[in-house]
Peptide deformylase
Amino acid sequence: MKLTIVEYPDKRLREKSCEVKEFDDSLHELLDAMNPLMISTNGIGLAAIQVGHPIRALILNIPDEEGEQPPENLLEIINPVMTHKSGETTYQEGCLSVPQFYEDIKRYENIIINYQDRYGNTKTLEADGLLAIAIQHEMDHLEGILFIDKLSYARRKKFEKEYKKMQKERKNSK
């Protein structure tokens, strides 16, 4: 399965993702194709909607101390629901769908989610630090929300201007 990352301002990124009901080979094939794409583009998380599949599925692989993302650390999270959130933290986020743009975003510091794995088994995950931030970022994608939506009005206007300029430069350099 050949996947490409959907980039802002593509309207598909604003689509609300549907619950996964079938935990079948096509889901497994999608998840298996998402991981190498995420790794090759230097991502730590990727939602299915970011590759054009509007389903409630995401993957995460937080780098270890050496900066590696071993396959055994991969998390596949289907139909996540946040059951607890506390604290507040700010982290400089980026997004594979909004390339080359980073901004400080406020998130919950600690979260607990219930989700299903690729086989439909129910799981619970407690997260803090970068994992909690990445889960919240990817769960926002499932709702059609991008991290840039969390910027102040003035910062968002500045982003739009900078991003248009950057896209123009990228096109001209090709």
